[in-house]
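Side project, low priority. Logging it here so it doesn't get lost.
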Amino acid sequence: MTAAPARSETLPKTMRALYKHHAGEGLAFDPARAVPTPGPRDVLIQVRKAGICGTDRHIWQWDEWAASRIPVGIVTGHEFVGTIVQVGSAVTRYQPGQRVSAEGHICSGTDYNARTGNAHIARDTQILGIDRDGIFADYVCVPEENVWPVHPDIPDHLAATFDPLGNAVHTVMEAGVSAKTVLISGVGIIGLMAVTVARAAGAARIFCTDVNPPRLELAKRLGAAEAYNARDSSWIEDVKTQTRGEGVDVLLEMSGADAAFDQGFRALRNGGRAALLGLPAKSVTFDFNQNIIFKGCTVLGINGRRMWETWFQMEKLLLSGRLELDEIITHEFPIEDFETAFATMMSGEGIKVLMNL
């Protein structure tokens, strides 16, 4: 067996990290967690910027989903950009000094889905910050196969958002929005990204719903034709009026909210296509008969990003200059101010909030 490399004398033995310290609300700051040691095929990355996302909020709030999935003691977080500082003895594609991000869904590559182009839903998938230590730390260790080199023309603050941007790109591309009318229900971080991605991908007309008026205004600046407050369901008739009485061709459900599922499918035309990315915090009540079966619609569950098709699509879209992300990335904090960073994101004051390490 090939031995793992000896730890470099220039690397510290400990690092700063945020971890789930108990089965309850919040995270804790550890100023001296052990730096992980890369195995033969692993890459050790020093994290520069880390993004806080909706999943991190679930973990912070310790809702029903988080309590059923997240192990206490784990380092959380999965959105980042950084620099390689050490590689395993069997790594051939990367070397220290390269600026990289990484696909957070890690699998062995041996099951049916992984071998047929669907590694993002492999049955043995482990997710950074959920099933194994994540990136809210000075260093993270990932397999060589999961590393993504960052194009030199893509700045750090955008590279740190590859994970959620990839969710948006995957959802939009899987749904097929070109020349279609599109409803995006929920314009949080990924929903707002989906607006600019759908516009770049050729959507004919984009409608959005949410309960946050400033987010709805931003959605319109990013390309939505109409943005409705979801608390008043009369918007459904307005959308149908603007779509020949039929409803939208495509639903992109980004919120995970119980009411949004019902409203979104009611606004979808018969035979339409729905791509679901939002994660409900608990089980939802839903009328399958009226909303899916009798409508004859196609429903897609979206998980992660396609490896590596989505990553190539992201890079091309970013380099094209057609994505508008600057108004979505609103705040940056040092990792020591993590409580303020999370509060800013969860209050709605911030949208995409980054932490600097």
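Brief comment: Residues 14-161+325-356 form a domain with the Quinone Oxidoreductase; Chain A, domain 1 fold (CATH 3.90.180.10).
Revisit when time allows.
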